[in-house]
Design a protein that fits this description.
Strand content of chain A: under 5%
Number of helices of chain A: 14
CATH superfamily of chain A: MetI-like
Structural class of chain B: mainly alpha
CATH architecture of chain A: Orthogonal Bundle
Strand content of chain B: under 5%
Number of strands of chain A: 2
Order of helices and strands of chain B: HHHHHHHHHHHHHH
CATH class of chain B: Mainly Alpha
Strand order of the largest sheet of chain A: 1-2
Radius of gyration of chain A: 24 Å
Structural class of chain A: mainly alpha
Largest sheet of chain A: 2 strands, antiparallel
Number of strands of chain B: 0
Number of domains of chain A: 1
Shape of chain A: globular
CATH superfamily of chain B: MetI-like
Oligomer: heterodimer
Low-confidence stretches of chain A: none
Helix content of chain A: over 70%
Order of helices and strands of chain A: HEEHHHHHHHHHHHHH
CATH architecture of chain B: Orthogonal Bundle
């Protein structure tokens, strides 16, 4: 019985096992291999050692710039987005009549946040005579060139990135709903102020969720592609030429597969180091109610 | 102070509190919804009027942006692009539900060698950036001669390759007491019948959440079709929308683009509203913890 059950478990796992080997582990390993080659899709991959890595750091200022602007974008977007998502989850967790109506109303824009249609509409809102500038001029201000100055273009993308708060908000909300009510009641009986309750009870109890969202969003935002591709096209003057864009251009426009693979390994390394640092420091700030047994 | 005045004070505080909360909720909702309403109005305006008025009601309703936008500047209409999107999205959703349920079942209800290691891989791939596997996958599909087909977009979902969903279903399935399985075994169910007859019906909210997320994410997917598809006749809505803004003359008919963008949001919205109750339940019961 026991050994038969062993087989049964593995049987149910078979699709995942095959898929992980073919669609994850094989490409993961082979992209490292390609990163040491020169490969133009026509002739065979040629092994060139670390030449790709040398090139991107010594003679390709666009790549270094892309790392700089991608990190800048991530550092700006992730904290604002998570704070905003937590704020929305917090007010949606109010025990009020009709709260479900508000939940639905908030989900709608958030759930559509990643849509290409939204990115296109976003571009329109920030064009020279779009809604945002119309509002500014009707209040007596001057038209702003949202997509023509580097810092403004970055700002437009950051705001779009923050707008994609949907999944973080939903995950925060489900965490807030799991906090036992008697903890709040006990704190109120002890005379704790609202802000004290929020920072001393709510925040510590949802640190595992903050941790999860933080890592998820860092991984997502460091790979951001749609926003810069659809709205700014990397410009102006490459100020939003993110790393995903330069990888895409090298792989699928210049057909330099080896070089693009090397770039994606650098991006991967950055993401992995960041995630590792967060994981390593997590026992200092992430609170697990079951005594650290995660 | 006697008990009654204290009571009144508490009640009044509650009322003030609730009022502030409603105001906060309403103001935030307006900020989030207004752009969408404005765009809805703008889709009925002429191109000239869009850039001239901040109000959302058009002077007169002009349907032509929808008619012309639907026809597109290509040889296909949006009907083709929508059909293409569904040809990709519907198999993806079905395959994801099936394969991720099987995988979650293996991880929650069985013991086998290497289980912890394999689950470690699920967690690691949850955070694995797609950028690092993209190029070899492209080369692999090219060697299979499957570029410019829907296979590269769909097939991986048959193998439970989206760890987010596996993880979510594992969390949810762990919450179902094993007593149900044991009772079913006594009734003579085999392990597959337990999954189909007992566990999956109980997981309906979680499964609906998977359907909803996978549907919306696949409709939104832009980069993968961009890489794998090259024939216009096979493009999904996301790529068709991008093409509409690439007007070669440099003049973008914004009213048509807005109209089509809004239409593109409809399938996701319809699904969301028809599933929203289960979705809200599924997210909270699934309890994704870090």
């Amino acid at each position: 019985m026991k050994s038969r059950k062993r087989y049964t478990g593995l049987l149910y796992l078979t699709p995942w096992l095959i898929g992980t080997l073919v669609f994850t582990i094989y490409p993961f390993v082979s992209s490292l291999f390609y990163s040491f080659t020169d490969y133009d899709l026509i002739s065979k991959p040629k092994f060139i050692g670390i030449a790709n890595y040398v090139e991107m750091f010594t003679s390709d200022p666009d790549f270094l710039n892309s790392l700089k602007v991608t990190i800048e974008y991530t550092i700006l977007t992730v904290p604002i987005q998570l704070t905003f998502a937590l704020f929305l989850a917090f007010i949606l967790n109010f025990k009020l009549k009709g709260i479900n109506f508000f939940r639905t109303a908030y989900y709608v824009p958030s759930i559509l946040g990643g849509n290409v249609a939204v990115a296109i509409l976003w571009k329109f809102l920030f064009t020279k005579e779009g809604l945002v500038n119309q509002m500014i001029t009707s209040l007596g201000g001057k038209q702003v060139g949202w997509l023509s100055s580097p810092s403004n273009a970055m700002f437009v993308l950051v705001i779009l990135g923050v707008w994609q708060f949907g999944s973080s908000m939903v995950i925060f909300l489900s965490a807030l709903q799991q906090i036992p009510l008697d903890l709040y009641e006990a704190a109120q009986v002890d005379g704790a102020k609202k802000w004290t309750i929020f920072f001393k009870i709510t925040i510590p109890l949802i640190t595992p969720t903050i941790f999860f969202n933080l890592v998820m969003q860092l991984v997502n935002k460091l790979q951001e592609f749609n926003g810069p591709f659809l709205i700014t096209n990397g410009g102006p003057t490459k100020s939003t030429y993110f790393t995903s864009l330069i990888i895409y251009d090298n792989a699928f426009k210049n057909f330099r597969m080896g070089y693009a693979s090397a770039m994606s390994w650098i991006l991967f390394t950055i993401i992995a180091i960041l995630a590792l640092v967060i994981f390593k420091t997590s026992d200092r700030w992430v609170y697990y109610s079951d005594g650290g047994n995660n | 102070m006697d008990a009654e005045t204290i009571n009144n004070k508490v009640r009044r505080n509650h009322l003030i509190n609730a009022t502030w909360r409603y105001i906060l909720l309403i103001v935030t909702a307006i900020i989030m919804i207004y752009p969408i309403i404005w765009l809805l109005g703008a889709s009925f305006k002429t191109n000239a009027e869009i850039f001239g008025s901040i109000g959302f009601l058009p002077k007169h309703f002009d349907w032509s942006s929808y008619v012309k936008g639907w026809k597109t500047g290509t040889e296909y209409t949006f009907a083709t692009y929508f059909l293409n999107s569904f040809k990709i999205v519907i198999p993806k959703v079905i395959f994801t539900v099936v394969s991720c349920s099987l995988t979650a079942y293996a991880f929650t209800r069985f013991e086998f060698p290497g289980k912890n290691f394999f689950f470690g891989i699920v967690i690691a791939t949850l955070f694995l950036p797609a950028v690092v596997t993209r190029i070899p996958l492209y080369l692999m599909w090219r060697d299979f001669h499957l570029l410019d087909t829907y296979v590269p977009l769909i097939l991986p979902t048959l193998f439970a390759q989206e760890s987010f969903f596996v993880f979510m279903l594992v969390q949810f399935m762990r919450g179902i007491p094993r007593e149900y399985d044991e009772a079913a075994i006594i009734d003579g169910c085999n392990s597959f019948q337990i999954l189909i007859k007992i566990l999956l019906p109980m997981m309906k909210p979680a499964l609906i959440t998977v359907v909803l997320f996978q549907f919306i994410w696949s409709m939104n997917d832009f980069l993968q079709p961009l890489i794998y598809l090259s024939s216009v006749s096979k493009f999904p809505v996301a790529i068709a929308l991008k093409m509409a803004t690439d007007a070669s003359s440099g003049f973008v008919p914004w009213n048509q683009t807005i109209a089509m963008s809004l239409i593109a949001l409809i399938p996701s919205l319809v699904l969301f509203f028809s599933a929203s109750r289960s979705f809200v339940d599924g997210m909270s019961a699934g309890g994704i913890k870090g």
